[in-house]
Design goal:
single chain; about 150 residues; 7 helices; about 0% strand
């Protein structure tokens, strides 16, 4: 069913590339099918005509992009193949902010807040522990596994 929808949206897109609703649904189908490159290319097309995109479609698109960027909520078998942490988070944030500026209300604001939260969580995870935490952690253990004293190197 999704492949049929993708084919129909692709045909509609070929007839008129300046219809952001068609392109938004083409992005959604591509994301659902794991076609990352097509989704990202078509998303750029959506942004070119974003002023003509209705809030409801923009919010739907942002939610789908956000859901496929968060492995914590992925179903079994979806991880990495379809869902990967942070894969579409910047796109979700961009289209969510457009929805907010177009008067998308509380729902658009909550999508933007969720995207920002996810982005910050991913950034914090990727940075690992701070140097101060590493130093503090190593200072608490003054002997190695064999019981020999550790030597601090400055």
């Amino acid at each position: 069913l999704l492949r049929d929808a993708l084919r129909f949206f692709t045909e509609a897109n070929l007839l008129n590339r300046n219809r952001p609703q068609v392109n938004a649904w083409l992005v959604i189908c591509s994301v659902e099918l794991g076609m990352v490159n097509i989704a990202k290319q078509t998303f750029r097309q959506v942004l070119r005509c974003a002023s003509d995109l209705d809030c409801k479609t923009a919010i739907e698109l942002a939610e789908v992009l956000l859901n496929f960027s968060n492995e914590a909520i992925a179903a079994t078998g979806e991880r990495v193949v379809l869902v990967e942490d942070g894969r579409y988070v910047s796109e979700a944030l961009a289209i969510g902010e457009l929805a907010v500026s177009a008067g998308g209300g509380e729902k658009a604001s909550s999508v933007v807040a969720a995207a920002e939260t996810l982005r910050e969580e991913l950034r914090a995870r990727s940075q690992g522990p701070t140097p101060a935490a590493v130093v503090a952690g190593s200072a608490s253990s003054t002997k190695n596994e064999e019981g020999a004293p550790l030597i601090a190197v400055a």
